[in-house]
Amino acid sequence: HSRRPSLSPTNANADDRTPSRSPSHVIPENATPNVPSATSTPRSRKSSTESNSHSLNDSSQRTVAADSKEIVIHDADKNGIIPTGSPRTNRKCSRASVYPSGTSLTARDAFGPKLTMPDTSDDNPSLINTPIFPDETPRDDAMLQKDASPEPEIDPDTLYFRDGRRRIDKVLVYQDDVNGVLTEVETRRQEQRRVFQQNLLKEGLQLELEPKENSFDGKTYFLKLHIPWKIKVQYAEVMNLKLPTKRFITISVKAWQGNEDARQRPKLWEKWMKWIKWMRKLHTWDTKKYPEEPSFYKSTDSGDREERFVVKDRDTAYTPAQRSLIVMQILLRARYDEHHDKSGIRRLLADGTYLDCFSLHEGPYNKPVLNGEILDRYLLYLIWARPGQWYKKQPLWLIRRYFGEKVALYFAWLGFYTKCLYAPAIVGLLCFMYGVFSMESSDNIPSKEICNPKIGGNITLCPNCDRVCSYQYLGESCIFSKLSYLFDNPATVFFAIFMSFWATTFLELWKRRQAVLIWEWDLQNVESDEEPRPEFETTVKTFRINPVTREREPYLPTWSKAVRFLATGSIVFFMICVVLGAVLGTIIYRISLVAVFYGGGGRFLKKHAKIFTSMTAALVNLVIIMILTRIYHRMARWMVNMENPRTQTEYESSYTFKIFLFEFVNFYSSLIYIAFFKGRFFVHPGDADARVSEFYRIKTDVCDPAGCLSEVCIQLAIIMVGKQCFNNIVEILSPKLWNWWRKRSHVAATKDHARPYTCWERDYQLQDPGRLALFDEYLEMVLQYGFVTLFVAAFPLAPLFALLNNIAEIRLDAYKMVREARRPLAERVQDIGAWSGILRGVTYVAVVSNAFVIAYTSDFIPRSVYAIVYSPTNDLVGYIDSSLSEFNTSDYREDMKSDMDGKHPETCQYRGYRNGPQHPTDPYGLSPQYWHVFAARLAFVVVFEHVVFALTGIMSYVIPAVPHSLATQLQRERLLAQEAKYEKGLKGRENEDDILSMLRDAGSNGRTGGGGRGSWARRFSKLSDGLDAHVDVGVRINKTSDGSTVWEVT
Predict the structure, then answer these.
(1) Residues 901 and 824 reside in one and the same domain
(2) Alpha helices (H) along 959-984
(3) Number of domains within the chain
(4) pLDDT tens digit string along 88-99?
(5) Residue in 411, 400, 384, 402 with CA at minimum distance from that of residue 778
(6) Does pTM top 0.85 for this prediction?
(7) Residues 346-399: pLDDT tens digits?
(8) Closest alpha carbon to 318 in 242, 411, 392, 415
(9) How far apart are the C-alpha atoms of 109 and 107, rounded to whole Å?
(10) Which range of residues forms the domain containing residue 221?
């Protein structure tokens, strides 16, 4: 398959050769590309052809024994790359009208008014002699006659240009003259598109336009972009993207070498290993049906020796995510204004010049093969995104290949966090079961006394409210006491300490896992320099000279930043006050609801009034939390836009801080109140100060005699589980409803209903994930991590519910990304960003929180003090009576006395350590037992915190951040770098003058039409020859600002 021959503009009319159907305007690859690398040398057509047809079926390895080490030289595995069909031989091809170099186009459909293609015929051969791939031959006259036939219909599932060979790497969407009227704004946009697309051609991209007549609504253009192999390789070298090499060295040392007896294992060990292998087999997918992860050593491709790398097909040599990333970098650097230094696709998207920019999914999710090519999207759906695959491990290598490192790192973190939850889920379940089976043991004497009719049935409790509330017996709190014991038992303290160690271990192990992923995915040298946001450049009116680049740039003065931060800080403080007001309203609702149940409810409601009140108050609080979350997320975006951060990283950091601060207060404030403040303001039943106003009525909000831990448990369970269920339902329905509505709108605008949608039209209908696609996912998991660690002493089953949720969450997120959303922008990141610091901060707060929950919320300390100091038998017999204080009902005012049920006892009991009414000097004052308990609680908090922080600190020190095997590999690389420095030093010095001259040229020219700018101008490199015949070592030489030489070996 070769291209249509060029049409001479002197003797042929382009309009006469154009088919009746609106063609796709193909921009040829003849234009001289302006690429950032100056050191790559073009390959000859012969060498390219030989390398492209190089056989990779030889899968051999040679072993050379050296002392106790085994050096294995591997060749490429023929099954290393997933696609099996050759795209050039299996793909269906369709033809399109081709406008060769030197032809002037005036079609507004392609580039706007009066676009003239650059004439590069002097520098490149004509189109007929420039095949798409080097192994192609020119076409003859007979083929020319065939091209005169009408253009066939395009395959709606195709991922290629109409020639069936060049793969679509990006799609730009725009509309021009609506209703045939060109406004001044649209004229400016057309000019920007014209300049922008000309610069894309100079950068080496190839373009193909689908006219609006071919679109679903007759007014939308789809501009398809393709990056050729040569440009792809040169940009990949600059961006440090690597290809798998054919041969590499691995060094393995056998621990039992020289001691064969050490290899013998006990039979029990063999059985254990068989069980582990069976579990691993169950956990992994069937490699006979689905491809397994390829194992390659990767290095940077300089473009001059393709035979060094595993390149079965140029379309698949670089992953889809890498191709998308390279094209996006070109789009970000291309200028769109000939007279001003304005560049970048983001600006054009912000001002409406282009409506969208996205990468195509690889065919339908349920279609396994397209034109002989196995589709990654189908594989991801089959072995990852389906709910039935919940017990299988995640194919991180395939996720990274398809979505990029940022998305893969999120799922790696989520999967690692989910695996780590197995241990606390099991331990928490065991603690809960201990409470169930020890309900009748001696540890639960207080609950037995409450439920005993002879003890709890004879103790009269004071009313919970004035007049309408009646006197109750202690025995009515039997249900609460049993519920409290399930979570407030001796195992609770152990579980709180265990969770503190678990949280620290989780973070340290994740650091190790992240270090391995960064090394495996080549993320050590991710570009750190960022360009300003388009919104920042277009809204800021003040400028300065950048001290680094010496270029004029937009600048926001310090006083302007301070004013903006002060305004947004005031709004954040106001929203936090709104949340606290909502918590106060919930408390008043709870107090009022208790009065309603006791005043007008039946016997059943009166008996279970406290449980109903706690559950309904928690549900109301959950509804308020979800409503405030939706409101604040919109406000947070508005506030961050008002701050106008310079870079996208600063934007995301500011947004993350504001959202997490608000959500922390929003979700945890009610739990903090119940756990640490409820009942602390209560003095005694007849306190007149508590009746001054509705606000002071909070002092009457007291815990049940069985304790506050049961209410914390109910509140935590409802908020945590309810939030998870609500978010999962939203994640399922929201994209489906969004896509349904968008598709419905497109169907209504479609003129030809019989024509099937093309793949770019189908993807255009999907929900756009946006640049903050993973923010909500991280936020949800970090808030869950807070529920699991901060208040786990009150609800040991929280890790179990979190584990069940995360198993479903992984598949829901995968399902949403594979089926319901557009393909997100591929990005390379070194870590999970600001969330790592937030997780560490939550871990430290969790230690303090659990210490206070055990000391002040649970009855562990009061029971221990009573058993050691006050009990004559050193047990808990009589503890309930000692934890209650007496009040004389004659001290009630007339407007406080209860007139319900006709009960008028002389005294009643209430929870607290206070003196009785007969105390000679301080009636109803704090008793000595209160101060004993207070001192013990404070001592426990101090000891708990210091011991846990000390032990977790030792654990963090003992667990290295980098695994030993990875440290050994890094040390080996440093050794190779040092050897390369000595052996290649002379050749490197010869290249330094060329590099310095290029740097001077880049610095003097600044940012010129499509050339390298910023850090790009400083990243020229040279890949030298190998050290020996068995290993290829690339030496990268860079000159730093202080004059020192930097050597990098890959």
Answers:
(1) yes
(2) 964-983
(3) 2
(4) 333 333 333 333
(5) 411
(6) no
(7) 889 988 899 999 999 988 888 877 776 778 888 899 889 888 888 888 989 899
(8) 242
(9) 5
(10) 170-243+317-359
